[in-house]
Amino acid sequence: LPSSADALSILPPWQKEKYEYDLVVIGAGASGLFSAGTSSSVGFKTLLIERAQHHRADGTIQFNVGGDCTNAACVPSKSIRSIAKIAAATRIGNSMTSETSGQNANNSNKWLKLARTQADDAVGRVRAREDPSRIGDVPNLDLEFVRDCQFISDHKMKLMCYDNSTWILDEQENVTTVANESIIGERIVSSKKFIIATGASPILPKDLTKAATDAGVPYLTYRDLLRPSSSDILLNNTSTRNIVIVGGGATACELGQSLSRLAGNDLNLSIVAPAILSTEDVKLQDSAIKILSNDNCKLYIGRRAVDIVEGGEAIPHLVLDDNSTIPVDCIIFCTGRSPESSLKSLHLDKAGVAWTAEKGVTVNSYLKSETSKHVYAAGDCASAVDPRDRRAIHAGWLGFNAVRNALLPWFLRSHATHQFVPRVTYLDPEIASAGMSAAECTRRFGVDGYDSILVPEDGSDRAD
Fold first, then answer.
1. pLDDT tens for residues 261-301?
2. Relative to the CA of 228, which of 267, 413, 435, 450 has its CA 20 to 30 Å away?
């Protein structure tokens, strides 16, 4: 079979406008990596663009790919979870054998630092496999790290690029200190097709972050907590004793259980949310509440955080909507994710691409933009993807399908979205589901419009 992109074209080359690339992929997370890898492997000339990560505190810039999954979500969170599980089991074992726990299981400093070390090591191992130098050597694939990029017309983008010498580094080095902007160069690129795979970022409630700043209370997102960092105020610091997680989704539940297990009795961990796992079936919500309560998480369900008041010499307090208060040393916001911050800087209007802050790029089930036929979107920034399905493994699958629909002949294309994508919340034990909840079935089909079966675990030999 021919390996070039021209061999798959329907029209002869002389009838086509010439572009520098067949495909430009914006974003090198799960979706972007799969998109670029698929496209280049079948002979299409591809450019993968990723924004370099700036760290203002120490003047360093990191050149990494993999997105949240590698650097600040899936990989580090599961690593921390594994140490938290060992910590919990050790405490149980010590209590059953009447061993003194003060020097072993309840040494929160030891468990927190071990979790940080384990997470950093796991991220480092994955980064080694996703080394940008290796990606740059892939045939038909170029990689550009940028400070900024934006559309300037339908088929052209302006990139503010770092010189390649700044990110092709020694094997043991992945951070470069940049003293000035002389390594930044402007580049104009043109492409036949584009795939936007810029993901989504944590949402920070403005009123509460302002109140936290005024009260001198540090606040974090999952990225601040999980991304490898020597300045981590939680996993490298045990002076924080009152942590409040605002939000009740999967991220809040997973972080809540892990932190509570790591710190043991040295930590007061509270979760404030209108509901726990609100999009899941009620039975799963009840299970999550039981699991978190068993690990000493204090749950404030059906309530919302509205303010933070200074405590003077005392500890500041988080104020809830029923006027009750919770002492707080640090807040972790798990209040959802939005594609807005990663999309607004692209100047999508210059390419005629419609998008919204809530859902991302407006695409159909083939992941094609509704307003610009040569632009596709995949992963967390694609409107056709249900928020519950916005997970790394699914994002990779969508990246593959975006390439297939964007570049291959029409008879090889297919719908890329699915009604029933399995999902897991990584509590211990895990909670899994697929498809609609009973409440969603009722809204769609009516009370008597569907059948349901409940098989309780209580009383069985499989019960906890």
1. 998 888 899 999 999 999 999 999 999 999 999 999 999 99
2. 267
User: In this structure, how many other beta carbons lie within 10 angstroms of the beta carbon of residue 449?
Assistant: 9
Contact of 76 with 226, CB cutoff 8 Å: yes
CA pair distance 298, 185, nearest whole angstrom: 51
Q: Is residue 193 within 8 Å of 407, Cβ to Cβ?
A: yes
Residue with tokens 């002492």: 327
CB-hemisphere CA count at 13 Å for 335?
17
pLDDT at position 7, please?
A: 47
Asked if residue 277 lies in contact with residue 425, where contact means CB atoms within 8 angstroms, the answer is yes
**Three-class SS state of 51:** strand
Q: Among the residues of 146-198, which ranges form H helices?
A: none
Distance of alpha carbon 73 from alpha carbon 388, whole angstroms: 16
Cα distances from 275 to residues 203, 395, 437, in angstroms, run 18, 26, 15
The Cα 243–Cα 88 span in angstroms is: 19
Q: What order of strands is seen across the sheet that includes strand 305-309?
A: 305-309, 317-320, 325-327
Q: Closest by alpha carbon to 131, among 139, 117, 143, 146?
A: 143
State pTM to two decimals: 0.89
